[in-house]
Amino acid sequence: MLSPDRPITSKEIPMAAAAILERIRVRTPRIHCITNAVAQNFSANMLLAVGAIPSMTIAPEEVGQFALSADALLVNLGTFDAERRKAADIAIDVMVKQNKPWLLDPVFVERSPPRTAYAQLLLEKHPRAVRLNRAEFTALAGTDVEGATLSRFSALHNTIVGLTGEADIVMDYGRLVCITNGDPLMVRVTAMGCAGSCIIGACLAVEKDAWVATAAGLLILGVAGQLAAKQSQGPGSLAVNILDVLHNLDGTALIEHARVV
């Protein structure tokens, strides 16, 4: 039984994730996603499957109003065009003023200095969480991935680090959890990671502890991908099957299949 009077530990993440999944389905939060063009359709479907509501506009004249009524915001840098940057700046300012959660996904920052510089500016606005891989972390932090560097990065930017790879690591200034769910086939589906960031956004919308929310989002995605891969013949069928698995996933299955350290 989870206690509201003390912080959740890494061992309790599966139970917490099950509770968060249930809250998403009860509250149906709206997640505004400023994401790349490749990821929009899949991300929207993944949010709908988990029980949230997506919105995707990047038009500067209306994105502020969309952010105003959203429960969380995702900013994904996969498509680095001027319109998306302007929309991101507007939407982030709205979320910060309202003290609502926003999440940064700094896609491919290691490949483009202007993208790296922009992501570093966004970090100054203190996203609740940053979901990124090892190469992206190294580009932003200017150092290799180690436990101490992850913790310093988290403390410096007042954010949660969700480092994804063969194992997913979620860290704040003092807590760490490692999640080993998922399947190698998932990396063969375009926008799988981007959609995972959207799911984290849905978790942030219903859970105040950003470390717990980030871990829950990655666990939900990992378990869904793992179960979907068992019934898939390749990446095409996985992309369809994960939507069905995610739609039908319940807390019992999530806890049963969780691999958390």
Mean pLDDT across all amino acids: 95
Order of helices and strands: HEHEHEHEHEHHEEEHHHH
The CATH topology, please?
Answer: UDP-N-acetylmuramoyl-L-alanine:D-glutamate ligase
**Portion in helices:** 40-55%
Number of domain modules: 1
For the biggest sheet, the summary is: 8 strands, mixed
- Structural category is alpha/beta
Strand content: 5-15%
Low-pLDDT regions: none
Q: Which word captures the global form?
A: globular
Indicate the CATH architecture: 3-Layer(aba) Sandwich
Number of strands: 8
Order of adjacent strands in the largest pleated sheet: 2-1-3-4-5-6-7-8
Summarize the structure.
With 261 residues, the protein is α/β, with parallel strands linked by helices. 53% of the residues lie in helices and 13% in strands. Helix 4 links the parallel strand 3 and strand 4.
Which key phrases capture this entry?
261 residues; alpha/beta; 8-stranded mixed beta sheet
What does this structure look like?
The protein is an alpha/beta fold and about 260 residues long. The protein has 11 helices and 8 strands. Helix 1 (about 15-25) crosses helix 9 (about 210-230), helix 3 (about 60-70) packs parallel to helix 4 (about 80-100) and helix 9 (about 210-230) crosses helix 10 (about 235-250). The protein is globular, with a radius of gyration of 17 Å.
